[in-house]
Amino acid sequence: MDYRPLGNSGLMVSSLTLGTVPFGGANGFEKAASVDRKDAEKLLDIAFEAGVNLVDTADLYSVGVAEEITGKALGSKRHDIILATKGRSPLGDDPNASGASRYHLVRAVEASLKRLGTDHIDLYQLHNWDGVTPIEETLEAMHQLVASGKVRYWGTSNYTGWQMMKTLGKAEAQGMIKPVSQQIYYTPESREAEYELMPLALDQNVGSLIWGPMGEGFLTGKVRRGQPTPPDTRQGNGWPEPYIHDMERAYDIIEALVAIGEAHDCSPARVCLAWLKDRPGVTSLIMGARTEDHLRDNLAAADLVLSDEEHRSLEQLTRPAPLYPYWHRVVSGMDRLDPAEQPFLDGYRETIANRDDDRSA
To answer: Which of 3, 61, 324, 326 is catalytic?
Structure first.
């Protein structure tokens, strides 16, 4: 297992993280969760034995139940690992039971501490942007929570590039504690994070924790072209995520993962994780497994080494379209490219060159 700095901090986290969305199964999460305390203890032990040192949860997951199970399942192991949770999501009809206001965040942290059975949260993440609360108020609340010792570090989740830069810039200007990480959705099928969020991570030294790296089960190989979707998958039981941009392209990606998996005698899920964990800017991939077998298979991705050709073929197949202003930088031959976006612009350059070759053929 590799250990990487979490952004601009001295905290070292494993390249694979255990996620707890599958813990619980209540309050609207029945289709995504079913792991009880006993099974959670087994999954945690397996992950820790493999070197995982970060566990991620949220007050939203089963509306508090996942945190309760996580806290009880960790028991005495709590202080041997890094514990992360999230808040900000609507948890009731009260208009103040949501958002990133000082009122809500302080109450949310205190409630999470109680459910988790701990005196501090190692990484507290704002689960989404709050477009109503002034960012200055949010920053003051997080600064206060860190200064109080209830939170050690804080981060964001599901922010856009401009929202994250506004947060970082305002924190620096106000002398407030900055977020050290962002938790974002990023998969071989969905690489929009490479337009802004991954260059931001590299430029600002922000850690990137990747949720749903297998497309919430979509890229595990259970969903295949021309085959019925299994009802025991999120894609077959009506769970609303993830959003798939182009199903035919997605099927092509799944087939490529399957083919590489067959060459390595392993699952396409393991190939997916092995490819994604070494993409530029990635700190850790969050795995959410319901069974021991699935978890062990995911953990084995830490040791799977893909060839350079396999890395290249998957990158080419899954490469996102060059949007403006990225394609403009390439076609106009701009020099002085920023090192933070260079890894991603190189792919656009190849895409545009191939397009021009096709036109002239």
So the answer is: 61
